[in-house]
Amino acid sequence: MAVSIKDVAARVGVSPGTVSHVLNGNKEARIALATQDRVRRIAAEMGYRPNRLARSLGRGRTDTIGLLISGLRNPFFVDVLESAEALALEAGYEVMLDAAPSAHGTYQGHGKLRDWAVDGVLMWAVSSQSLERVLGTQAAQTTPVVYIGAVRKDDTDWVSFDLYDGGRQATEHLVSRGYRRIAYVSPYAFGEDRHEEPRHLAYKGVCAAAGLKPEFVLLHGEETRAAGLAAGRALAARPASERPDAVFCHNDVIAVGVYCGVRRAGLRVPEDIAIVGFDGVEEAQYLEVPLTTVRTPVDALCRHALNILSRRLNGEAPPPREQALIATELIIGSST
Amino acid sequence: MAVSIKDVAARVGVSPGTVSHVLNGNKEARIALATQDRVRRIAAEMGYRPNRLARSLGRGRTDTIGLLISGLRNPFFVDVLESAEALALEAGYEVMLDAAPSAHGTYQGHGKLRDWAVDGVLMWAVSSQSLERVLGTQAAQTTPVVYIGAVRKDDTDWVSFDLYDGGRQATEHLVSRGYRRIAYVSPYAFGEDRHEEPRHLAYKGVCAAAGLKPEFVLLHGEETRAAGLAAGRALAARPASERPDAVFCHNDVIAVGVYCGVRRAGLRVPEDIAIVGFDGVEEAQYLEVPLTTVRTPVDALCRHALNILSRRLNGEAPPPREQALIATELIIGSST
DNA sequence: CGGTTTTGCACAAACGCTTGTGCATGAGAT
DNA sequence: ATCTCATGCACAAGCGTTTGTGCAAAACCG
Questions:
Q1: Which of A57, B233, B276, B289 could form a disulfide with B334 if both were Cys (CB 3.0 to 4.6 A apart)?
Q2: Å between CA of B36 and C1' of D8
Q3: Residues of B in contact with A111 (CB under 8 A)
Q4: Count of other CB atoms within 10 angstroms of residue B86
């Protein structure tokens, strides 16, 4: 159907192999410059584009990297996707998205990444065990993976934001503004699997240093606006004396929900209650008061992660695993 | 590397062809039931999954459909993507996303869909000429395409929301609530290419019928929160006597921006100015006042479009083109 | 002008799978 | 016991590339 390498070869009067050599710039196969020109010209004229299925099959690589994230309903991940896609493209890779349908919540890959044989994977903060569910036992061992978005203790390549420092900045900011009852709104119960969450730790640390009593407000359910709203409502329903005067939200989407909840309950932000988010998504800048938040530079993270990954793919990276922490930045809005 | 069909065949003690026949349920090739069982059992044991590159190359189809949309920064398109992905999966297709990076605005495909030889395409409201830029002249002619999201005049398959009726409902709602100065906030100048935009038409029609003077507020730039905010600010800056008492926004993202703009300027919603959006994205339900909007049932649209597309792919659809309009539904929030 | 090197390209195997053809073997019929 | 048929599977070509080997012709050397 489409024009194949054979068509081009026939038209030029050479063999398909020759066309391939020319188009791939193979220096070993010395092709006369005149021939090269003709091949390139005719290929362009005919609008030839190599079939990537065949190409990938032949070369044993797809020039595609998988991006595994937990769902695009959080606009933060849209940023991640767009950033990764743009940067990957520059490096000559395509991105294949594998996101959990937000509806179902927990990720249940159907093996997309495995079946299409991606060369490598950028994996958002999913436990390494689920890597196997995604790639299969075999590929999980041989496919280079760079974890992103979480600090890890194990021997893997990863790039994360400096979540601890971000949490510190956020909490110290609240402390320095004079807030005394600062709560943390989190999807994770403290003391559970995720008890080492750096933001949690930083929050607790700063509270302790300031002589404040930490309070964790546990979200019921997912990290959604709805859950945030419920939490906000619940906070607002407390008598003023028992209500935090500031909350640090695990991320911006939650913060948006909390904001909505407390506002609908008639509280003023920041007069009655201050709110700090985390991530720096665009949406949170369109509340009546721009949200104070901790910006996580997605571009820098993706760039770093892709850098590591592509070096692994090219076999340029020697065994030692690479880890990196990307600095975060406090964005002071008007919600504090 | 990964376990191939040969490995399975060797282990079972049959030829690769036999394994293929069994696994694909080929009735023509009568394989003894006992053999079938062994093949299936061993294949499962070994964790065999056919390499989709090879499979697609062999069969001449990828079981993948392309989804072409203009960017995920508008959460509406996240809904479209998730819906399409879930429904496609049910029908045995994978979805390959091709979205314009929001940053660049205008779409500039790098031929992803063409190179990977998708079987068909779901295309959001992009002009048919740009189809060629996406698929190439050749594939553009042979690849089934179903356009979604816009009413078309040409002879193509398409599924759209009933935008006219949606616009009518929104405007009539405002009229019936007693608003007399109703403006339309739009990214398109009236009288331009898009002057037939059904929402525009409906708005104008309803205004005329009610004896109201239509006013188009033109957005400067893209369909973003930022542009909406600027428009909102500008409206709020007008003296009360020259200010609309209600605005119908082209979509929810714009409405969110407008809301933010007028609120920051001190106006109350809906007392000073009412706002209606379009699309029904989740985000817009988390303003202090839930946004009145026109819900466009994304799932129904995707289902219908995929239905048409898969029938075309299976050659089940006779020549007559299919078009469909999906009904919309007014969601009355508190912004009116 | 014979011999050596270089140049330029054709050739073919391989990637992993699908699918139609063909050939044994065994069962059934006479 | 022979013939016919159905059964069960192996076989091989093909999908569109890539890539290493090999061989002819042309260029160089003395």
A1: B289
A2: 11
A3: 49
A4: 16
- pLDDT grade for A142, boundaries at 50, 70 and 90: confident
Domain ranges within chain A, ordered by starting residue: 5-50, 62-162+298-321, 163-295
Across the beta sheet with B182-186, the strand order is B215-218, B182-186, B246-249, B274-276
Among A77-81, A194-198, B160-164, B317-321, which is the least confidently predicted range? A194-198
- The answer to whether B147 touches B80, Cβ cutoff 8 Å, is no
Phi, psi of A160 (to 5 degrees): -135, 165
Instruction: Report which secondary-structure segment, H or E, holds A39.
Output: helix A33-46
**B151: distance to nearest CA of chain A, Å?**
27
- B239: pLDDT strictly greater than 90: yes
Query: Does strand D come within 7 Å of the CB of B57?
Result: yes
Q: B219-245 in b/e burial notation, b at 16+ Cβ within 10 A?
A: beebbbbbbbbbbbbebbeeeeeebbb
- Which nucleotide lies closest to B12 by the C1' atom and the CA atom? D9
Nucleotide nearest to B60 (CA to C1'): D15
Pick the CATH number of B5-50 from 3.40.1350, 1.20.1420, 1.10.260, 2.30.30: 1.10.260
Strand D nucleotides, any atom under 7 Å to a protein CB: 7-12, 14-21
Q: Does A172 touch chain B (CB under 8 A)?
A: no
Name which of A57, A264, A286 to mutate to probe chain B: the one with the most chain B Cβ atoms within 10 A of its Cβ.
Answer: A286
Q: Are B163 and B248 in contact (CB under 8 A)?
A: no
What's residue A153's pLDDT? 86
The pLDDT of residue B53 is above 80: yes
Q: Is the separation of the CB atoms in A296 and A278 below 8 Å?
A: yes
> Could you count the other beta carbons within 10 Å of the beta carbon of residue A182?
25
In this prediction, residue B199 carries a pLDDT of 94
Average pLDDT in the B117-127 region?
A: 87
Q: Which residue in the block uniquely carries the two structure tokens 């996406």?
A: B134
Q: For residues A84 and A63, give the distance between their C-alpha atoms in angstroms, rounded to a whole number.
A: 14
Q: Which B positions 16-75 lie with beta carbon below 8 A of chain A?
A: 47, 49-54, 56-57, 62, 72-73, 75
Radius of gyration of chain A (CA): 25
Give yes or no for residue A144 having a pLDDT over 80: yes
CB atoms under 10 Å from CB of A285, counted, come to 18
Q: Report the CATH fold assignment for A62-162+298-321.
A: Rossmann fold (3.40.50)
pLDDT tens digits along B271-309: 999 999 999 999 999 999 999 999 999 999 999 999 999
Taking CB atoms and an 8 Å limit, are B2 and A287 in contact across chains? no
The pLDDT of residue A106 is above 60: no
Q: Residue A213 CB: number of other CB atoms within 10 A?
A: 10
Distance B57 CA to C10 C1' (A): 25
Closest CA to A3 of B115, B130, B65, B68: B115
- B5-50 and B62-161+298-327 in the same fold: no
Contacts of B330 by beta carbon, 8 Å cutoff, 6+ apart: B166, B169, B170, B173, B292, B293, B294, B295
Quick check: A139 contacting B, CB < 8 Å?
yes
* The CATH number of the domain covering residues in B62-161+298-327: 3.40.50.2300
Residues of A in contact with B72 (CB under 8 A): 72, 78, 81-82
| Residue A309, pLDDT above cutoff 90 | yes
Q: Are the C-beta atoms of B173 and B203 separated by less than 8 Å?
A: no
Domain A163-295, CATH among 3.30.160.20, 3.40.50.2300, 3.10.20.90, 3.40.50.720: 3.40.50.2300
Decide: A123 and A100 in contact? Cβ < 8 Å. no
